[in-house]
Amino acid sequence: MQNGWLLVHADKAARVPEEHSETPYMTRRAMDFITEAEDDGRPWCLHLSYIKPHWPYIAPEPYAQQCTTRPTSNPRSARRRSASRRIRFSPPTGHALFKKHSRDEAREKVIPTYMGLIKQIDDQMGVLMNFLEQRGLLDTTMIVFTSDHGDYLGDHWMGEKDLFHEQSAKIPLIVIDPSSTADSTRGTVL
Fold first, then answer.
1. Which of 57, 58, 79, 83 has its CA 20 to 30 A from that of 67?
2. Which long-range contacts does 136-139 make (Cβ < 8 Å, 24+ apart)?
3. Is 86 within 8 Å of 168 (Cβ atoms)?
4. What is the model's pLDDT at position 153?
């Protein structure tokens, strides 16, 4: 068995078929929940929380080999920028996790896989939107899309989300409110 936590296997495909991986599974469960509630005539509220692209960074095919995005910057460049801003932060580079993310060969494997997992979520959101449209629910359903955090992916020599750099704190928030009361704010970007 290969360890997905060490980042060295992130360029290998998951051994589970895509339809059985976490993201499509959760989409199907969400659609089952909506179907059951609608068929019973009950109002519903659904919190759909995708686990990916959390660790381990392993994607099923076709997403494992689909993205070829490579790191665009060297994580060490953050130190020069930070020093010029008089920010005094020394990442805990002795921790194994930070050592893994700061290695170029780890970033080169993790970033394409991470982007593949993002693409899988995008595709599954499309499946969910088509489902809502087929059931005539897009005109009556408020949709809020957000994330709990970003990921350093090696920037600032870190992985995960530990501090308030843009990489971990800048997250999407998209609200789709079909009601006419939202017309005055429609298309607003903050």
1. 79
2. 137/34, 137/38, 138/178, 139/178
3. no
4. 81
What are the tokens at 94?
């002795």
SS (H, E, C) the chain: CCCHHHCCCCCCCCCCCHHHCHHHHHHHHHHHHHHHHHHCCCCCCCCCCCCCCCCCCCCCCCHHHHCCCCCCCCCCHHHHHHHHCCCCCCCCCCCHHHHHHHCHHHHHHHHHHHHHHHHHHHHHHHHHHHHHHHCCCCCCCCEEEECCCCCCCCHHHCCCCCCCCHHHHCCCEEEECCCHHHHHHCCCCC
Placement of tokens 């469960």 in the chain: 29
Provide the pLDDT for residue 84: 47
Q: What percent of the chain has pLDDT over 70?
A: 78
Tokens linked to 114: 């991470």
